[in-house]
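Hi R.,

Here's the chain you asked about this morning:
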Amino acid sequence: MKVNITKEGNDEITIDSWDMISMHTTLAQIIHPMLVKQKEIAGIPFVSNTDVPKHLRSTDDYCLVKWQWVIDEMIYAFGRCKDDLHGEDAREENGLRLFGIYYRSLWH
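And the predicted structure, written out as tokens:
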């Protein structure tokens, strides 16, 4: 796979047949480092109390601590996918679930 994304919108994306064999691994190789970078520079989006452990629940829906926990779960999940680790892992499943919920919150 080759991805070249430019500010001008002249993007070039080449997907090879071997990228499709384990697409979850291929995508995780891109998503994981982006999530790590996002954690360093991100704002604080709305995080529902139902998505964090009880000890992190608060009346402040935009709490940095809650967002960092959510993004850490996503980083963990995509780190496992990137390394092509398989097996029953509730934390990995939760991180993938949270990625789906907070996908549109991944902004800078």
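The chain has one domain: 22-105.

Let me know if you need anything else.
M.
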